[in-house]
Write a structure and sequence with these properties.
With 289 residues, the chain is α/β, with parallel strands linked by helices. It is 35% helix and 20% strand. The protein is built from nine helices and nine strands. Strands 1-4-3-2-5-6 form a six-stranded parallel β-sheet, with helices on both faces. The protein has a three-stranded antiparallel β-sheet with strand order 7-8-9, with helices on one face.
C-alpha cells in the first residue's frame, strides 16, 4: 500500500524522491478510472525515481446549501488500493480539522470574474472554496507538478490562472477526460445513477458529440445541434433538467460569437434525478481545425 498520511507534519517528513521531483493528484476520493489515469500520468511525468502524492479530501467549502456533501461517497480503502495499482507513493487523507484548524477560513482565494460564470453562476462560492483548498494543498504537498482532468474545464482554467497570477512554483498539467464505453464521462457521482438515470445521462456526451460534428457550419450551428439533443432528453423519464449549455472561449469562459475562430469549449451541466453531472468537449473553428 502507498503510505497513508493524515497530517501536514507527516507530509513534511516524507523522504525526498531520488530525482527530487514530486507530482500531486488532488481528489475528493471515490476514485475511478479517470483518477487512475491522472495518477498513472503523474508517475509517467516524474519517472520511477520521482514521487507521486494523491490527496483525498472532501472539501466542505466547495459544497453549497442543499448539495451532496453528506452523501458524497467516501471509499478510502478502495482509494488506497487504486493508488497502489497506479504507482502512488503516498496518499494524503487529512481530516477537516487538519486542513481548517481554526474552522472555516476567514481569508480565502477569490475566483474573480471567471469564477462567476457557468458553474460559478449555478453554484455561488463554489470556486472560491475550490481554489482555497487547492492553494492549501499546493502549499502542503509542495509539488513540482499538479495534474487535473479536463472534464472539469472551468476548474482547470481557474487553477491554472491562480498558479500564474499568484506565482505558485508548480506546473499545472491537464489530462484528457476519461469516458466509459458508452461515452459517459467518468465521475464519482455516476454511482448515484439508476439504470434509467444513466440512459438519460448519456444525452450529455451525445449532445456534445453532435454539436462538435456541426462545427464546420460555425458556432451557432454547434449550439443548435447540441441543444436539440438535450431538448429530446428533457422528454425522457427521468427527464434531463438542463442547467446550462455554453460554447465558450477557454481563456475566460465567455460565450463565443458567430464569427469566432480558434479553440472553444462546448460545456454542459444538467441534473438527472438527484444527480448533477457536467461534461465538455474542445471544438476548433477556423483555418487549420
Amino acid at each position: 500500500m502507498p503510505q497513508l498520511i493524515r497530517t501536514g507534519a507527516e507530509l513534511r517528513s516524507l523522504p525526498v524522491a531520488p530525482s527530487g521531483r514530486r507530482a500531486v493528484v488532488m481528489t475528493m476520493g471515490a476514485l475511478h478510472e479517470g483518477h487512475a489515469r491522472l495518477v498513472c500520468a503523474a508517475r509517467e511525468k516524474v519517472g520511477p525515481r520521482g514521487q507521486v502524492v494523491v490527496t483525498v479530501f472532501v472539501n466542505p467549502l466547495q459544497f453549497g446549501a442543499g448539495e451532496d456533501l453528506d452523501r458524497y461517497p467516501r471509499t478510502l480503502q478502495a482509494d488506497l488500493e487504486l493508488a497502489l495499482e497506479c504507482g502512488a507513493d503516498a496518499v494524503f487523507a487529512p481530516s477537516v480539522e487538519e486542513v481548517y484548524p481554526g474552522g472555516e477560513p476567514q481569508v480565502r482565494i477569490s475566483a474573480g470574474p471567471l469564477g462567476e460564470r457557468l458553474e460559478g453562476a449555478v453554484r455561488p462560492g463554489h470556486f472560491d472554496g475550490m481554489l482555497t483548498v487547492v492553494a492549501k494543498l499546493l502549499h502542503l504537498t509542495a509539488p513540482d507538478l499538479a495534474l487535473y482532468g479536463q472534464k472539469d474545464a472551468q476548474q482547470l482554467a481557474l487553477i491554472s490562472r491562480m498558479a500564474r497570477d499568484l506565482n505558485f512554483p508548480v506546473e499545472i498539467v491537464a489530462v484528457p477526460t476519461v469516458r466509459e464505453e458508452d461515452g459517459l464521462a467518468l465521475s464519482s457521482r455516476n454511482r448515484y445513477l439508476s439504470p434509467a438515470d444513466r440512459k438519460t445521462a448519456l444525452a450529455l456526451s451525445t449532445a456534445l458529440a453532435v454539436g462538435r460534428s456541426a462545427s464546420g457550419a460555425g458556432p451557432e450551428a454547434v449550439r443548435s445541434a447540441a441543444r436539440a439533443e438535450l431538448d429530446r432528453a428533457a422528454e425522457l423519464e427521468p427527464p434531463l433538467v438542463l442547467d446550462y449549455l455554453a460554447l465558450v472561449d477557454p481563456r475566460d469562459f465567455i460565450e463565443v460569437g458567430p464569427d469566432f475562430s480558434g479553440e472553444a469549449v462546448l460545456a454542459v451541466a444538467a441534473r438527472v434525478g438527484a444527480t448533477r453531472l457536467i461534461d465538455n468537449l474542445p471544438i476548433s473553428f477556423g483555418a487549420g481545425r
